Amino acid sequence: MDLRYALRSLVKDPGFAFLAVLVMALGMGANTAVFSVVDAVLLKPLAYRDADRIVTLSTLWKKTGHLGAASAPDFHDWHDQSGVFAAMGCYELAETAVGGPSGAEYIRVAEASPEFFAVFQAQPAAGRLLAEEDRQADGRVVVGYQYAQSYFGGAAEAVGRQIGMFEKSFTVVGVAPPGFDFPNQSQIWFPANTVFQETTSRSAHNYRVMARLKPGVTLQQAQARMTAIGTRLAQQYPASNSTKNVAVTRLQDRLVANVRLTLYLLLGAVALVLLIACANVANLLLAKATARSREMAIRAAVGASRGRILRQLITESLVLATISAGAGVLLAMWASRALVALAPADVPRLAEAGIDARVLAFALAVSVLSTLLFGLAPAFQSSRVDLNRALKRGGGRAGVGGAQGLRSALVIAEIAFSVVLLAGAGLLMRSFAALQNVALGFHPERVLVMQTSVPASGRAVAQQAIPFYQGLLAEAAVLPGVTSAGATLMPPGDTASNGSYFIDRHPGKDEVLANSPQAVFSVVSPGLFATLGIPLKAGRDFNAADTDDAPFAAIVNQSLARQSFPGQNPIGHTIYCGFDSDKPMRIVGVVGDIRQSGPAAAPEPELYMAYQQHPRPDQYVLVKTAGDPAALSETLGRMVRSRSADISVKFSTMQLRLEENVAAPRFRMLLLGILAALALCLAMAGVYGVMAYAVGRRSAEIGLRMALGATRGNVLGLVLRQAFALVAAGLILGLAGAVAAARFLSSMLFEVKPADPLTYAAVAAALAVAALAAGYFPACRAARVDPLAALRQE
Question: How far apart are the first and last CA of the chain?
């Protein structure tokens, strides 16, 4: 009976029902959509057997606390000495051109050790997985299930087939199980130390390591064991290991380390939006309770207890919340797809986000919680019935005692929550603007980026790629609309390699490499600096004479020059590094600093090496154009295919690549900005509702004031002062909360402090303007009150 009456009351008042359902659906839908992403990325266990027992082992740099890759010798020592792992494997990720039945195509591949698949307890879909024997044999690979389906027609059909990469032919010995694509959506795995020989240097940190804990071994026990091994290695090899140790982390925690804080931030933001929505609906219910005071009085007069009235009102709130939850789930289905589309591409397992049973259970829990949040206070308030007052003729307008104070408190809470969101969004916007306007040190405009890979492996074979790139760059440079062209191992925005360097001396055998100066290593062709607009500060650029049989040349940036040659001219000095050769390189030039590691990272010391002296089969060809760079991609693609049909290419632009660097800040800023705008709209709707209600209740008082001589301006000021009192109280509470909450944003901000006064001043001004707009219309209505009509109603 209560349910039927609740449904009839909503049908009788469709305007109220629509508004309440809309407000709650927005709050519930936003929460459900964000939870679907949080659940898929952070909460669901990984799709591996006993996934909570899979851990990563990382090099822990003691000075900075940074976690990084491991060297091959360190990995072998960890593997042989640990005793707490059932299996331990390492891998190195790459993207290269793979020749298959349909031609060459860029595929993500991984160089993996024999126990790699044992860590995941993976079982092959066909054939077998990598084994120790594959390290002694040549040309064996495991392919992904999706790759086998796409290129060979099935898992069983793939076994024994041939693929080409790194200028070699490989035989498929097995197919990984369906859905397995670790790491980072890899589709081909080949044995470690076969195609590329692992280095014996403990300072070459090239491998990622993971392991499976033995039954009964805890994460803490494994960490203690690995710390002891790291300490022993530091004593045994002080030149390379004195400043590092080992960190053991659960694989899932390591995978989501970069996105965890962002997702929790969004979950907290939508929780605030839900609280604001609940406060808004509670205000609507309080207003409706005033109109129903006579109904409640009649119910009480004919014998209804307070508990019986409470049950009816809570049932109505539950029905309202259930309908809103249904609408919210429909909204969340669209919103979750929008979140996936807007999110950065490197968010793990994002494709798994969607509305499933866990998300529906969350939506149900939110609806019950919302019922308690927005339904209880109005229900308790409405059940306190004064029969004498309520049954009088004016009882409908007299309302329920204390309701106005409760409504004002709810609006103050709405404003405070919206201030917290507005301040957070403002800080992220200011940070993103600073990130967009930072001086990069180069000009990314109208630069086409073509990723290429010539089939080759090893330094001797890589020399064969030099004529290809020389001819391609020479032909591209004279194309119509092209101003310059160059090639590099890695364009600005990311680094391919870094390490120690030494000036005017070769490092001694026992020298502590970990304490030597560090620099980013870049391999570039002649013309690269001109293509990117990197200024030459001294000396010369690389040229065609910098060949493998000529004295090795190097160019350094200003940061390295200041670090190693304070007050001196670096030209003519020699520099050594362990990139691929121990030959001395003569410094022939100095160029300006660039943000090689991305816009958010400060310029680092950087060492540039000549491509012909340090050949690599994988290169990025950059072409500066006078017009739209994308229009040149088809022409360059034909030029590559005319030289070799086995070479695969991928096109982008320098600006698009830089946008990928700021995808995460943009995502945070955009979503928090949308949620803050929604919160502000809901809060201002609350201000409007309270002021409109107050004007209605005080119509007689306003009429009397005007009869006694008050002007319309006086009445307008009276109402607006009341609105500003609410806003001021909410603003003070909100700013205090925003300052406290902003500390959690500090790691996400760039060149903006969490206590940025300009942001908080802007939030206060925006809120004041919005409050003026929300309170102005009720104030105007109050100023137009007819004193006689208002007094006659009493």
Answer: 37
Whole-angstrom Cα distance, residue 565 to residue 563? 6
pLDDT value at residue 487? 94
Domain range for 637 is 456-645
Q: Are residues 93 and 43 in the same domain?
A: no
Tell which residue, 170, 120, 168, has the closest CA to residue 147. Answer: 170
Q: What is the pLDDT of residues 209-226, one digit of tens each?
A: 999 999 999 999 999 999
Question: Are 171 and 269 in the same domain?
Answer: no
- pTM of the model as a whole: 0.81
- Residues ≥6 apart with Cβ < 8 Å to 60: 66, 67, 230, 244, 245, 246, 247
pLDDT per position as a tens digit, 83-133: 999 999 999 988 777 876 666 677 889 999 999 999 999 999 999 999 888
Residue 485 is which amino acid?
A
Asked whether residue 187 falls in the same domain as residue 285, the answer is: no
- Count Cβ neighbours within 10 Å for each residue of 406-415 and write b for 16 or more, e otherwise: bbbebbbbbb
Strands 188-191 and 103-112: parallel
- CA atoms lying within 13 Å on the CB side of residue 599: 26
How many residues would you count in the chain? 794
Element (H, E) at 332: helix 306-342
Name every residue whose Cβ is closer than 8 Å to that of residue 418 and which is 6 or more positions away in sequence.
272, 276, 676, 679, 680, 682, 683, 730, 734, 767
Q: How far apart are CA 532 and CA 446, in angstroms?
A: 10
Determine if the peptide bond prior to 183 is cis (ω within 30°): yes
Q: What is the pLDDT of residues 426-456, one digit of tens each?
A: 999 999 999 888 999 999 999 999 988 776 5
Distance CA 537, CA 589 (A): 8
